[in-house]
């Protein structure tokens, strides 16, 4: 049945990936740079509330019925789409064809390289490298490629993507490892894990708009410095208390989760300011896509390390 879970997750992720991308594009498109931080902070509130309630709801559903019903919860998102659509205008962009070949070769590249790490297969690694070469060739030769090479001539934008990719990969260790440690070392149930992580997500939600306001008033660098300090503190302290009382885990997760929320606001705001209005959709969409790839890469590497018995 595992292959069915993976297949279902693919379809679920294909739809769900639109949400965080839209959450970044809408504030960038509809708010001036002077007010954009507050708008991005508001979207961070929604994402943090989801992160707060998700583990608890999942734990309740898994405990009372079955984990299989968790996939059905995603259907609830359809109910809010009409309200979301109500506040958007009818402005359309230039009609373009979708480069399915480029998209599939990129997806194949990422999947092959991640599977190569997980399985320890040189064959899959070779397939990934070959698909990457085909993707780069496609980008250079297609009339309307999946990724426009011209956007990377913007050096500030390109540098921002590199920094965001590394930061997202590093930060993904917190939400990925904490539940596993709490389950394996503290022997907590899924519902109990959700309650341990609940305070950190709520704090991130409560402080999201404050972080956006700081970005507008003090600048993105100021917010970035605060975020980096909070994340560093969380990493250092969690590495010392893993396996001890879950209360310590929950407390130090607050610093890391709030820092992650702030750093996402700072990076989104910074990168959006390097783009022209015509490049906003493609640029922020690419930013969101790389965040997903960074998260997938990080979880694969961390999971491989954990399977190998890393402490």
Description:
- The chain is mainly α and 311 residues long.
- 78% of the residues lie in helices and 0% in strands.
- The protein is built from 13 helices and no strands.
- It is globular and about 55 Å long.
Helices and strands in order:
Blueprint: H1 2-16, H2 18-30, H3 36-64, H4 70-73, H5 81-86, H6 100-119, H7 122-141, H8 155-171, H9 173-184, H10 190-218, H11 220-241, H12 246-272, H13 280-307
Q: Beta-sheet strand percentage?
A: under 5%
How many DSSP E strands?
0
Total count of helical runs of at least 4 residues = 13
Averaged pLDDT: 82
Topology as H/E string? HHHHHHHHHHHHH
Structural class: mainly alpha
Global geometry: globular
Low-confidence segments: none
- The N- and C-terminal alpha carbons lie at a distance of 30 Å
Question: Compute the gyration radius: what is it?
Answer: 20 Å
In short:
The protein is mainly α and 311 residues long. The chain has helices at residues 2-16, 18-30, 36-64, 70-73, 81-86, 100-119, 122-141, 155-171, 173-184, 190-218, 220-241, 246-272, 280-307.
